[in-house]
Amino acid sequence: MKVEITTSLGPITVELNQDKAPKTVENFLAYVKSGFYDETIFHRVIVGFMIQGGGMDKDMKTKPTNPSIENEANNGLSNLYGTIAMARLSDPHSATAQFFINTEDNPGLDFQTETEEGWGYCVFGEVTEGIEIVGAIEEKPTTTRNGHQDVPEEIIYINKITTLD
User: Fold this and answer.
1) Which residues contact 160 (CB under 8 A, 6 or more apart)?
2) Model confidence over 32-82: pLDDT tens digits?
3) Where are the domains of the chain?
């Protein structure tokens, strides 16, 4: 299954890995189909690490989400350049809607052990087209806005996410 993330800088196509992360993909697609991601932003961008979005509006307000999901990071997939993974809080099973795209190989984010420190971040797909858009987002200067650090100075919208097949 592929989705297209239509951003204000251009489209990013992502191939989802339903075999390795079935609950995560199902959760993500439920948000996609409901239109949840429409007009959210990439609110956290760190050069040489990742770009994160899918949960806040342009005013840095967090959108209400569905309940959190089980962490499927123990699926053999690694946080490599161009993969998409679920963002979460310190609780390993706290992911809801926010996701990030790795802009470098980040093996330190991979599953290690079933402990709070070792769970890692669940990879559930990878960018197949538009990696240059990911790079363009990563290169934008950042600032602090409404108490949040690493926010792009220019608002970068996720206009919508749609399924392609």
Assistant:
1) 6, 35, 37, 38
2) 999 999 999 999 999 999 999 999 999 999 999 999 999 999 999 999 999
3) 2-163
Residue 165 has pLDDT above 90, yes or no: no
Q: Which ranges of the chain does DSSP label H, i.e. alpha helix?
A: 22-34, 131-138
Instruction: Give me the chain's average pLDDT, please.
Output: 97
Average pLDDT, stretch 145-159? 97
The pTM of the full predicted model, rounded to 2 decimals, is: 0.98
Cβ(116)–Cβ(94) under 8 Å? no
How is residue 51 written in tokens? 């770009």
8 Å CB contact between 121 and 86 = yes
The two tokens of residue 31 are 């948000």
Sequence letter at residue 121: Y
What is the DSSP-derived secondary structure letter of residue 147? T
**Tokens 């690493």 identify what position?**
150
* Dihedrals phi, psi of 23, to nearest 5 degrees: -70, -40
Torsion of CA 62, 65, 82, 14, to 10 degrees: -120
Structure tokens at 113: 């052990």
Q: Which CATH class is domain 2-163?
A: mainly beta
